[in-house]
Every structure is written in C-alpha cells, then in structure tokens.
Amino acid sequence: MTDFLSAEFWNKRYHDGSAGWDLGEVSPPIHAYVEQLNNKDLRILVPGCGNAWEAEYLYRKGFKNVHILDFALAPLDNFKSRNPDFPEDQVHFGDFFSHEGEYDLIIEQTLYCAIDPVFRIDYARKSADLLISRGKLVGVLFNRTFESGPPFGGSKEEYLSCFAPFYTAVSMDECYNSAAPRSGNELFIRLTK
C-alpha cells in the first residue's frame, strides 16, 4: 500500500498545512450548483470530504440531510469544531468503498483525484451503488494530467469510459467558474444513475 492510500498520510497533510487542494471555502462550481437546488430534503453525501466546506455551506442553506465521509480524522475534527450543531450521526469516519447508505446526490470535490487511478472504476461503481435510481453524482474533476500524484488528473474521454457503464446520463463540461488556481483545469460533471 502506498502512503497516499493511508489515513496517516492525509492526516499529516492536514496537520502540517500542506492540504493545497483545500480552498478554505466551497468550490465555486459546486456553490453555483447548490444555488439552483430547491429540494432541501435531498439525502446528500460528500465523500472524501476533507474540511467539508461544501457540506457546511449546504447545511447552512437548510439542507439538513447532508452526510460527510472521510477516512482521515483531522479534517472531520476541523469540520466539527466549525460546526458544533451538525448532527454527529451524519459525520462518517471510514472508507468510501465500504460505506453503506442511500443518497439522492453525491457531491464529488476531491476524492476521485486523490485515489489511485486503478480504483477509478471501483469509485464509479460504488458511487452508483450508493445512489437511488435517478440519483446524481455532481462535482468537479481535473481536466489535465499531472506528472505524479495525488492529485491524479485525467481527461474527459477517460472519465466518460469510466462512468458510462454505471450512469445513464453523463454530462461533463469545462468549468467556466473555477477558483483562480484551477481555472481552465476542471470539468463540471453531472451524472445520473
């Protein structure tokens, strides 16, 4: 097992301040998506949530059935210290691939790019398994390659081949509203089971 597959690796990144993927706020493309959601009863999962800025934003907007999941405790503790009123039973410490639940919406922010690319088809399958029929996987993926990782990038073509077997509707468009450091390097994905 390589270091980046361990909780210790990710905990260390949060503790020493080297979580460069963390924007310190909700990602602008996800912010824009949340703004158009009307059903506050959606069951939402943010896997590999890190500091969970997206979940915090959703919860404060009135989405009370938001669940966060990470296998590193440091970011979950950061989230809980910022959001002491967030329901404890909606904070999940564990591995995405063994998580159980049923959701209407999964928000992808940084998990897919953090896992070893050999597990990407497993991610696509697991995300679909966690969604109800017509449930959605929505979020951002890198639209570029990296020399090494994590993060691990990719291309629209690669992502389409990975997700198409598990989703009936697959939309991936270049983000027009990425955070400045990611401008021109992200795809916004909308996948329907």
Task: Describe the protein's architecture and organization.
- This protein has helices at residues 7-15, 28-35, 53-60, 73-82, 120-130, 156-163, and strands at 44-47, 66-70, 91-93, 103-108, 131-142, 169-174, 186-192.
- 28% of the residues lie in helices and 22% in strands.
- β4, α5 and β5 form a beta-alpha-beta unit.
- With 193 residues, it is α/β, with parallel strands linked by helices.
- It has one domain: Vaccinia Virus protein VP39 (Rossmann fold).
- The longest helix is centred in the middle third of the chain and has 11 residues, at 120-130.
- The termini are far apart.
User: CA-to-CA gap between the ends?
Assistant: 31 Å
- Per the CATH scheme, the topology name is Rossmann fold
Strand content: 15-25%
Report the helical percentage: 25-40%
Please write the string of helix (H) and strand (E) elements: HHEHEHEEHEHEE
Largest sheet, in brief, is: 7 strands, mixed
- The CATH class is identified as Alpha Beta
CATH architecture verdict = 3-Layer(aba) Sandwich
What is the β-strand count? Answer: 7
In order across it, which strands form the biggest sheet? Answer: 3-2-1-4-5-7-6
Shape: globular
Nearest-angstrom radius of gyration?
Answer: 15 Å
What's the short story on this structure?
The chain has six helices and seven strands; from the N terminus they run H-H-E-H-E-H-E-E-H-E-H-E-E. The protein is of the alpha/beta class.
